[in-house]
TrEMBL record:
Segments forming domain CCHC-type: 42-56
Coiled-coil ranges (or none): none
Protein's name according to its UniProt entry: RBBP6 ligase
Record-annotated RING-type domain positions: 143-184
Keywords: Metal-binding, Zinc, Zinc-finger
InterPro entries named among the record's database cross-references: RBBP6, Zn_knuckle_CX2CX3GHX4C, Znf_CCHC, Znf_CCHC_sf, Znf_RING, Znf_RING/FYVE/PHD
PROSITE patterns for the chain: ZF_CCHC, ZF_RING_2
A GO-annotated cellular component: nucleus
GO biological process: mRNA processing; protein ubiquitination; ubiquitin-dependent protein catabolic process
MF annotations from Gene Ontology: nucleic acid binding; ubiquitin protein ligase activity; zinc ion binding
Length: 208
């Protein structure tokens, strides 16, 4: 009788424990924040500042959703060129929520370089191409000093900007304080310049 009473008491205690301490599954459901992080991009309109369920275009039946973009994961920021239009050919989504394309692609687009399809007609002659409009070259491919496409591109360690090797070395040596022309930091030695191999490879077509 005593053992039976003890067993009943243990069962009742266990039931109370389960009732009071059993986790409520609804308490662990994460609620979306009112304001998303700066890097979040709405999958419907392609703009930051709101979640897709709060997108201003939700009630617009004529709105066409932007295409999903590949993320630039693994590509260094210095190897990318920012663009404004998400529909730019080769555009990717960066961790900061901006759009960018690889520098090598940018210089190819700037030249209007296209891969010929075997079934397409012959390319027009050079005389007809001479009247075609020039494509603008992205500023990121131009030297900060000479304003031309960089030759033997190097990176300066103080601010991470790239210049022509000759331009930046001459500028640093001509400056009494060895001042960087971009961020104006002093005592920058030309020996600390690092070759920008990615840019050199991408812009090799520029020099004969």
């Amino acid at each position: 009788m005593i053992q039976s009473s003890k067993w009943l008491w243990e069962q009742e205690r266990c039931m109370h424990t389960i009732f009071f301490f059993s986790p409520n599954p609804f308490s662990y459901v994460k609620k979306p924040l009112a304001t998303p992080p700066p890097s979040y991009i709405c999958f419907r309109c392609g703009k930051p500042g709101h979640y897709i369920k709060n997108c201003p275009t939700n009630g617009d039946s004529n709105f066409q959703s932007v295409r999903r973009l590949k993320k630039s994961t693994g590509i260094p920021r210095s190897f990318m060129v920012e663009v404004e239009d998400p529909n730019t050919k080769g555009a990717m989504l960066t961790p900061t929520g901006r759009y960018a394309i690889p520098i090598i692609n940018a210089e190819a687009y700037a030249r209007g370089k296209k891969e010929k399809h075997p079934f397409l007609p012959e390319e027009p002659s050079s005389s007809s191409l001479s009247s075609a409009p020039d494509y603008p070259i992205p500023e990121e491919l131009l030297c900060f000093i000479c304003k031309e496409i960089m030759a033997d591109a190097v990176i300066i360690p103080c601010c991470g900007n790239s210049f022509c090797d000759e331009c930046i070395r001459t500028t640093l040596l001509d400056s009494e304080e060895h001042t960087c022309p971009a961020c104006h930091q002093e005592d920058v030695s030309p020996d600390t310049l690092v070759a920008n191999k990615f840019l050199r490879q991408g812009l090799a077509w520029k020099r004969p």
